[in-house]
Design brief:
The complex is a heterodimer of chains A (106) and B (426). Helices cover 19% and strands 17% of the residues of chain A. Chain A is of the alpha+beta class. A 3-stranded antiparallel sheet of chain A has the order 1-4-5. Helix content of chain B is 53%, strand content 8%. The longest helix of chain B has 28 residues. Chain B has a 5-stranded mixed sheet with strand order 1-2-8-5-3, sandwiched between helices. In chain B, α5 runs parallel beside α11, α10 runs antiparallel to α11 and α16 crosses α18. The chains are: A alpha+beta (106), B alpha+beta (426).
Chain lengths: 106, 426
């Protein structure tokens, strides 16, 4: 199972919970906003999933999305109670992008 | 820019007037001054302060760990001149600091991480989603109580009660005590707003109310220790941490006191401000009434447009560069969130109140390690209150066209907000 992980720069408020709950998987960029440590955002593995989910669940702005490539679904949407729009991944998060893209412009 | 910018006052004079709450025009509308400050003096140095008003510097300063919430001895309450105070007031301030410094919002480094880690999950968006139905029930029941009269004071009848009931339930604090908690909160809040007159009295009030709140929380904690608790409540998380030695008794009380205070006071102001913004931008209110799904956007836009917490302080622990600004060890720093949230370098048409604004990464909840723990909860409460009012009372209007703003450079909120509700669409 490959896992796609994204930090939404529109939501990240640099609270740093992700790098505390999943050290080595998230880091702070030059402006202090979060990004993943991987060049390829699809290269996360099942063994890393618990830490990724802790990071996601502790993010105060819901900026972290963890998507299993097998089901092509965000794990949060699969488990979400409300399924409210706006909490799933945006279409443009699919596919690898350079790491710089997840850095906020702020 | 408005005509006020053409004032004969120097930027230093206008800053001093704003900072000490002495000018009614600035209390009523500080935003033209913020425009001037950003344009003329974006890194403003005055009275031992370095003041940032642009988005980029405000965000950078808040994120930088070398700028801390306190200097280890005191918190910066604004224009309060400690040197001119009687000894008794100074002692009370020191005692207040000793009580407050243990709370989440005054700690730094590992201690801050550890404390935040105890409760972060309970306030994360996924947990708050589970509370949404309860927030709707509370909002509707509060509105039901006054709907028949055709009138409402949005602050007394809804904006303070909704967040206080919800946070009390999360903390397992009796909701019937909310009037007491509100009084203690109001008694403490004078100190945070920038003290102008009766300084010793304001400090005495804050000191007395803080002690009473702490004693009350202490009693609640003792009772909860002896009784059955809900497994998932924030109180349970903290009591378990206390039993494991991860948090001391003193810190437990300080953190809970912070939650009941911060858990309602700023959200009360935020709900009131959002109603003012919508009532004074009728086209946006009509948009919301036509599509209640816009309530979340309306909440965030109101937070940006009329930020309830207008500023936040820091102390420089070492020499730091923030953007191109040199901040020296020992400098006091103040970020003006409200100015950053109207920065034209960051927001398109920043003075336009637009509930459909898409790019709205505002700083009303701060940014960085001290980003508001309760931000998701506050957003849900504001949006729920707005949606409930818009659904039931689309003809609603303010009875007084000029809202009375609290005289505070730091806290933006109205003291009362009488509404004519119009027909209840149920």
């Amino acid at each position: 199972m490959d896992i796609l992980v994204r930090v939404d720069p529109r939501k990240c408020m640099a609270n740093q919970q992700c790098s505390k709950h999943a050290p080595g998987l998230f880091e702070l960029g030059p402006n202090g906003y979060a990004r993943t440590t991987r060049e390829d955002p699809t290269s996360f593995t099942a063994a890393e999933l618990p830490a990724l989910l802790r990071a996601r669940d502790n993010c105060p702005t819901g900026a972290i999305h963890v998507e299993t490539m097998d089901s092509d679904q965000d794990t949060g949407d699969a488990n979400s109670e409300s399924g409210r729009p706006g909490h799933g991944p945006s279409p443009d998060w699919r596919g690898a992008r350079p790491r710089g893209d997840v850095e906020s412009s702020a | 820019m408005s005509a006020r910018v053409a004032t004969a006052r120097s930027i230093e004079e206008e800053f001093a007037a704003w900072y000490s709450n002495v000018d009614p025009a600035l209390v009523a509308d500080p935003y033209p001054f913020f425009d001037r400050l950003r344009a003329e003096s974006p890194v403003h140095r005055q009275a031992g302060l370095v003041v940032f008003s642009r988005y980029s510097e405000c965000a950078a300063a808040a994120i930088d760990p070398r700028l801390e919430k306190t200097d280890g001895k005191r918190y910066d309450y604004g224009s309060l001149d400690r040197g001119s105070l009687p000894d008794s007031s100074r002692r009370q301030l020191d005692e207040l600091f000793q009580m407050e410094r243990l709370a989440l919002n005054k700690t730094e480094g590992e201690e801050h991480s550890r404390l935040r880690g105890l409760v972060q999950t309970a306030f994360a968006p996924r947990m708050i989603e589970r509370l949404e139905q309860r927030i709707v029930e509370v909002a509707e029941s509060l509105i039901d109580e006054v709907a028949g009269t055709g009138r409402m004071d949005a602050i007394d009848d809804l904006a303070y009660q909704l967040p206080l009931i919800v946070i009390s339930e999360m903390l397992e604090v009796p909701t019937e005590d909310r009037h007491l908690i509100r009084e203690w909160g109001l008694g403490m809040s004078g100190l945070f707003g920038g003290v102008r007159d009766d300084v010793a009295q304001v400090i005495d009030d804050a000191h007395r109310n803080r002690k009473e709140l702490f004693a009350y929380i202490h009693g609640i904690v003792e009772r909860r220790r002896r009784s059955t608790r809900r497994a998932d409540s924030v109180m349970s998380l903290l009591l378990e941490a206390g039993a494991d030695g991860r948090i001391s008794d003193k810190q437990l009380i300080a953190v809970l006191a912070q939650f009941v205070f911060a858990g309602h006071e700023t959200t009360t102001n935020a709900i009131g401000n959002a109603i003012v913004a919508l009532m004074t931008h009728r086209d946006q209110w009509e948009l919301l009434c036509a599509d209640l799904a816009l309530a979340r956007g309306a909440a965030d836009e109101a937070l940006r447009y009329l930020s309830p917490v207008q500023t936040e302080p820091r102390y420089a622990t070492v020499d730091v560069m923030i953007g191109e600004a040199q901040v020296r060890h020992g400098d006091r720093v103040r970020m003006i969130w409200a100015a950053a949230n109207r920065d034209p370098e960051r927001f398109v048409q920043p003075d336009r109140f637009d509930i459909r604004r898409r790019d709205n990464k505002h700083l009303a909840f701060g940014v960085g390690r001290h980003y508001c723990l309760g931000a998701s909860l506050a957003r849900a409460e504001i949006a729920t209150a707005l949606a409930a009012l818009a659904r039931r009372f689309p003809d609603m209007r303010m009875r007084d066209e000029r809202p009375r703003w609290r005289p505070s450079f730091n806290v933006r909120g109205v003291t009362e907000l009488p509404l004519e509700l119009g027909r209840d669409r149920g």
